[in-house]
Amino acid sequence: MKELRLRVDPVFCDGHGICAELLPELIRLDDWGYPIISGEPFPASLLDKVRRTITACPVLALRIERLDQKQKAS
Amino acid sequence: MAITGTIERAGLIGRGGAGFPTATKFRAVAATRRRPVVLVNGGEGEPTSRKDALLLERAPHLVIDGALLAAAAVGADEIVLGIKIVTGAARRAVEQAIAERHRDEPTAPRLRVLDVPNRYLAGEERALVNLANRGRAIPPAGTSRPFEKGIDGRPTLVQNVETLAHLALIHRNGPDWFRSVGTHEMPGTTLLTVGGAVARRSVYEVNVGAPFTELLRAAGGRTDEIGAVMIGGYSGTWLSPDEALGVCMERSSLASVGGNLGCGAVWVLPATACGIRETAATMRWLSMQTAGQCGPCVFGLESISNLTGELQEGTAGRGALEQLLKWASDIDGRGACRYPDGAIRLLRSALTTFAADAYDHARGHPCPGARRPITLPLPEIRNAA
Q1: pLDDT tens digit sequence for B234-263
Q2: Interface contact A74, partner B, CB < 8 A
Q3: CA triplet B341, B288, B124: central angle to 5 degrees?
Q4: Interface check B334 vs A, CB under 8 A
Q5: What is the ipTM of this complex?
Q6: Of all helices (H) and strands (E), which one includes residue B156?
Q7: How many Å apart are CA B91 and CA A6, to the nearest integer?
């Protein structure tokens, strides 16, 4: 079973903030307009929405991280 | 691989600040498929630390011995020595030592110097690799790890200067000799840079686990009543005098008071100085030293720096302390490197250690020390407002 997490590359991210509007379930903005993303695995039911958000990012700073349960343990 | 086994039996832990087991790093690099490079990390961007520069200046051949052993252990054919450009004496000593090696041991791996700019972040592992590859001493985007993909895309073993010196001595004297001092978890001695209100500011070699009081004695004692002690430099923690006087220079003892050894820099703040002022100046400097890449770090540290500056002046208002703690937790872990995390560790410890003073500042009553000159070494800031 893979766990899915949403990650942002903070170097690429310019704080456009579109992601937080599209995906408030996982993303809120800090006081400077940059996304604070939940570090918890997200449910598969959100996958389509997550993918749409990733595509909508103007600088493509978002990605999905897939982690095996056993990888997580190491 | 015999060398890797030896340092594993010696229990050598890296002395660069992260406290990582050296043998584990060696194995990770040796297990890769391409020919690795050894990168000696003499970046030492922390202004309160100068143990690596001193070691390079006084014992360059010992560090090179360690680097050659490391290269042999992982099968590297090239050694890059990253030396902070401002430490002229260290650089000259290293260049002379390299010339002697190339003259006497023509078959040894090639040694070359990489000039490292005097920036806080330049000693960060990924920043140093990026400097070697692209001439910019800032952490690159992405998630590349030097031990897999470092200099010229090759697996790169990055080792702190002091760690390599220990490695050379372990090779000469054996793991049991190394383990005869220090703690079980971190055997050996360690180099600590002691500054501030002590009689003799210098670098001291102590057994890991030595009491802080012993270090203080070695430095000739305090020259003033102690207000607080910063351990681990500008990504470290402020300890109260009571905490510092009861602590030993090793992980678990320091952890019990919320601290860590980090790069081994120790700064004794006199009681006459204002901890809030020192912290405000440090936050200002740290906000100027970011790589300028990650929003939460660039803007977060700027906001924190501005507000701690107002706190120092007594104009920040009563909500300032809560606001600072909120921003600290907001930016925690959100940079491409650990830089912002270190800055807020120091901030949080300041708000705890100087809590009573911080409260008075927030209520508009800065202490008398708030107008005195800054004691910490903060290049470019000096004593400007």
Answers
A1: 999 999 999 999 999 999 999 999 999 999
A2: no
A3: 50
A4: yes
A5: 0.90
A6: strand B156-160
A7: 44
What is the residue-wise DSSP string for chain A? -EEEEEEE-TTT-----HHHHH-TTTEEE-TTS-EEE--SPPPGGGHHHHHHHHHH-TT--EEEEEEEHHHHH-
Cα B289 to Cα B119, B229, B243: the distances in Å are 7, 23, 30
What gap in Å lies between CA A55 and CA B257, rounded to an integer? 46
A71 confidence band (pLDDT: 50, 70, 90):
low
Q: Is B140 on the interface with A (CB under 8 A)?
A: yes
DSSP state of B35: P
Q: pLDDT for B25-67, tens place per residue?
A: 999 999 998 999 999 999 999 999 999 999 999 999 999 999 9
Q: Which residue has the tokens 């030097």?
A: B146
* Contacting residues of A for B340, CB less than 8 Å apart: none
- If DSSP codes are grouped into helix, strand and coil, which group holds residue B316? coil
**Which residues 6+ apart lie within 8 Å of B84 measured at CB?**
B42, B43, B44, B45, B53, B90, B91, B116, B117, B118, B122
CA B44 distance to own-chain centroid? 6
Per the DSSP assignment, residues forming a β-bridge with B228 are B269
For the segment A33-67, what is each residue's pLDDT rounded down to a tens digit? 999 999 899 999 999 999 999 999 999 999 999 88
* Token couple for B274: 């204002």
